[in-house]
Design a protein that fits this description.
Blueprint lengths: L1 E5 L8 H12 L3 E7 L13 E4 L6 H19 L4 E6 L4 H11 L3 E5 L13 H13 L5 E4 L2 H11 L5 E2 L36
Parallel strand pairs: 1-2, 1-4, 2-3, 4-5, 5-6, 6-7
């Protein structure tokens, strides 16, 4: 089976998407990852095909609209009856849903966060648009996963849907660059990510 994976970013820093794609690829699926040029076009080396939709919009709200239409056309062009669609986050869900219905293809929705409650949309007019979209599509989905148990509980309670499968986003295991095994050595915690409210950093 071919899996068309789509996400709204330039693919260079999204480790969750990369780990999902690599896992699927290592288990025999033919992966193609589709992103865009929002934030630039850094060099990208992956063991599976990638493509990036070129957006002309310079303002994010317009870029979202442009991306929806261009992603829809891209998915229609690349999908066939041996395709699974994997939509990462709410900002790719509508074109994936439309193509899945048009071509009768399975769709997996991977919600990395509660998109409608993010600080960047909270309290804005666009929050109502995203909420309406997700509340319309989510109850119609057969396959959904999210990144934490509390997120899964929220989706289940908010939309009255079957509780999504939880796939947590742990970093890849790597060797320890320093030896902290000595008694009384300081413990080091590294946070890598956006500094936003509601991330639990306090």
């Amino acid at each position: 089976m071919k899996v068309l994976v789509s996400v709204f970013n330039n693919l260079s820093t999204d480790q969750r998407v990369e780990k999902v794609c690599r896992t699927l690829s290592e288990n025999g699926f033919a992966i193609e990852l589709i992103g865009n040029n929002w934030g630039g076009l850094p060099d990208l080396r992956r063991d599976y095909p990638v493509s990036r939709i070129i957006l002309k919009s310079k303002i994010l709200r317009y870029a979202y609209v442009e991306f929806q239409w261009k992603l829809y056309k891209e998915l229609l062009k690349k999908a066939d009856q041996h395709t699974i669609l994997l939509s990462n986050d709410l900002d790719t869900l509508l074109p994936n849903y439309m193509v899945s219905k048009k071509l009768n293809l399975p769709l997996v929705y991977d919600s990395h966060e509660i998109f409608t409650e993010m600080p960047s949309v909270n309290g804005r007019f666009t929050q109502n648009i995203w909420r309406s979209l997700e509340s319309f599509i989510a109850p119609k989905l057969k396959f959904m996963m999210t990144a934490s148990e509390s997120y899964a509980d929220w989706f289940h309670k908010t939309y009255g849907i079957e509780r999504p499968v939880v796939v947590q986003n742990f970093p890849l295991k790597s060797g320890n660059p320093q030896d902290y095994s000595m008694v009384n050595s300081p413990k080091v915690i590294i946070y890598q990510g956006v500094i936003n409210p509601s991330r639990g950093l306090d």
